[in-house]
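<tokenise_the_fold>
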Amino acid sequence: FLLCRETEACLDPEALRGLSESLGRRSVPHPHARPAAGTRVGVVQYSHEGTFEAIQLDDDRIDSLSSFKEAVKNLEWIAGGTWTPSALKFAYNQLIKESRRQKTRVFAVVITDGRHDPRDDDLNLRALCNHDVTVTAIGIGDMFHEKHESENLYSIACDKPQQVRNMTRFSDLVAEKFIDDMEDVLCPDPQIVCPDLPCQTELYVAQCTQRPVDIVFLLDGSERLGEQNFHKARRFVEEVSRRLTLARREDDPLHARVALLQFGGPGPQRVEFPLTSNLTAIHQALEGARYLNSFSHVGAGIVHAINHVVRGARAGARRHAELAFVFLTDGVTGNDSLEEAVHSMRKQNVVPTVVAVGGDVDTDVLSKISLGDATAIFREKDYDSLAQPGFFDRFIRWIC
């Protein structure tokens, strides 16, 4: 893989999704009508000879972070040979050379094990050199646990040892420290631009404005949560609702609507409020919400949410809206109907996010309800952390 962002990189499918989305969240792709300023991001997936799949830097369909995330998620693992030199040449000719803006800096992050098909031309390992492109090569062992090939990495990085990094696992690509380091590499001298918002009284820019999003919070009301944490989780849902740009009416083709379901054992599932954009109704429903203090069966909660919130006769999900489920749970739950629930989520094209609080969590369950997307799982030490700006802002950027 090559991830290019008037910049570039190479990786495995899940790591590609995680890294590209993480970097994308920190520097949102600019609408791609060849703007004079802003960051643009492209991706190349490559495999055997002549097999390339690209997200172009100037793709006019990518005009927001959400559309970029969707394009990345649509990449499928090709699973073939490895023609890295040809891919580097392709990336320069097809993504950089033709669509490069004047006076822009171009970065390439190439993530690979360094090996390639011997029939491919070694000279093209330097295809990005001598073109005013800053190249970082990251070497990671392959799925067979073979160590990366260092000599080729140095060639890719234009013989600059400081531009070569070594890793042992692909999961390291989505570690917070690595993302921070890459941000420093890709944007060493950031310019802080204060937007001119004469009519905006808040300090943040409105979120979830360019597409319809229906967000269903599923709160684990089990006895492990505790009354105090229940109130903190309830406050978190209200603060998220206040931060989002809510729909102006129930059939608004843009903006967000929010619902909350508190799940417990196989029987007690409680829709605290259905999908709505009415802040007053949300506030009143949350004020009246009572802690279930029950067992936990997340599968039953998911099925109930789909049947009674998503498909509900009153205020069901909008037809063309992105359907997001946000789980507030540690994953310690009964497994009854969990497989059925996960299958139903996939059928409904649910986009999951999991907020797992505390040190005692069931990672297998969290992986299942996140539909295998590790980057969609937020781990926090306690419910107080949900109110911290560092987490809260990151969460809002993620769901929007």
Observations:
- The CA atoms of residues 232 and 383 lie 6 Å apart.
- The mean pLDDT is 82.
- The first helix runs from residue 13 to 26.
